[in-house]
Structure formats: structure tokens, C-alpha cells
Amino acid sequence: IDVNQAYISAASLSTNRQDDLKCAGFYANTRSGTVNGVFFLDLNQDGSVRQTRVREFSPEDIQNLGNRNVEKDRRGNLGLGDDFRFSEFFVRDDGSAVVTAEENYTVTTTNFYLRSQQTTTYHYSNDIIALMIDNQGNIERVKRIPKYQIGTNTDYFLSNASILYKDDVVFFYNEDRDNLSKPVDNPRPQAVSNFDAGITVMTVLDRAGNLSRSVLLDTGKSASLFVPENCSPFDGTKLFFMSVRPRFFGDNIFQMGTISLP
Known about the structure:
Blueprint: E1 7-15, E2 21-28, E3 35-43, E4 49-56, H1 59-65, E5 70-72, E6 78-80, E7 84-91, E8 97-112, E9 117-133, E10 139-145, E11 149-152, E12 161-165, E13 168-176, E14 198-205, E15 211-218, H2 219-222, E16 225-226, E17 232-234, E18 238-245, E19 253-260
């Protein structure tokens, strides 16, 4: 694939029902610079290339990605920060696809006292980026699902789980209750750091790029928080999940269940 002498910075692979290989990824114009665009590659079973597409981020894409996700490279060009990692690659029955990436990173600080020191690690799990690809391989749009999560010395309740439901991609993650009073695409969501006051939401990205959000688990009622890394999709439209209610005294309370979409 020709990405105009740029550097491929990350890629994700998936197959369709016919075992044809599909690849999507990010590229950067400099070796250690920001992400400046996306590419898509469709291969037949014999390895022959069926489709290749390259899309450089437009000014509109840069604006949609949000200020906190955009950085300048050494040439002064704006691009996506390099902390995003691919998570899911969904292929629909008609050959169209949605590829998701999420920003995750850690910051460690050490405070020194007279005769001791304390080290704290802050885990950040932020926005989700979705690449929406039609059945001709064209990269239709780059969509952002705003999310801002911080965990102190743990990433247990961070990140998201997702499934493909019909033509929609459904995301499950923990959210700050105050964010529900704002639009789901609010570019500056309040951080989820006090998980005692958190809720679990279900956010749907439809084929047209529209977002909708609803409450899935409320800690005030279920007394538990979603654990994305321990969730697993099955039967196409169902998700096995685990939730936990942390306790300062005694053992944590674990709950397991199944989310079934109609």
C-alpha cells in the first residue's frame, strides 16, 4: 500500500465470513510524529489486493478529533496523538467495517518525604476513535466518542467493551454521572475519577455516525461498576459482563450477568 512515503504507526487486522483479510491503520508523515491519516487494505484469500484506500486527515477531521487529541509534529502539521491503540475491528455482512481505537497511557509521580517516598501511578483511558469504512473500502468518516477516565494505581474500571449489533457499534463503559446532563458528543467531558459516584453507560454509534447514550448500571441501584477487561461478547448480540463493588472493609462484591440486545 502506498501511503506517500509516510510511516505506518499502527494497524489492526480482521477477516470476513469468507476469510478475506482486512487491514486498517494509522500513518504518520514523520518517523516519530503525530498520526496524519488512516489507511485501509482488503486482501483476497490468495493474498491478492482487492482494495486499498488512504485518507489524510482533513481540517474537518482534525476539528472532529478534538483539541485534546490533536498535537503538532516537527513540521508544524496537526495530527492525532500517538497514544491511541486499536481495540476492535468489526466487519458487517455487507463488507463494510468499523475499526475502533482508544487512548490509554500512564503517568507515574514520586513524592519524597524526610525518610520515605511515595510513588503513585495514574492510569488514563480517554476518547474512542472509530474509523467507518463502506463496503467499497472508502473511509467514510472518522468519529470520536468522548470519554475521560482516570484510575489511581489501578486501571480495573477503565477502558470499554464493545459489540457489533446489526449495523451499529455499541460501547459499554463507566461514566461520570454529571456528564449525562450534557450531549454525548460533548468535547470536554468531566473526568471519571471517583468511581463511587460513577455509572455504567451504553453508547450506540449508528451507521450514519450518530451517537446515543443510555444508563446501563447505576451504582446507586446495582452498587457495582463495570469491569471492561473481564467482558466477552458471544452469540453476536450478547455480552457477558462482570461488575464489582469495591469495599474498604471486607471482600469486594462481584456480580456477573449477560447483556442481551433486542
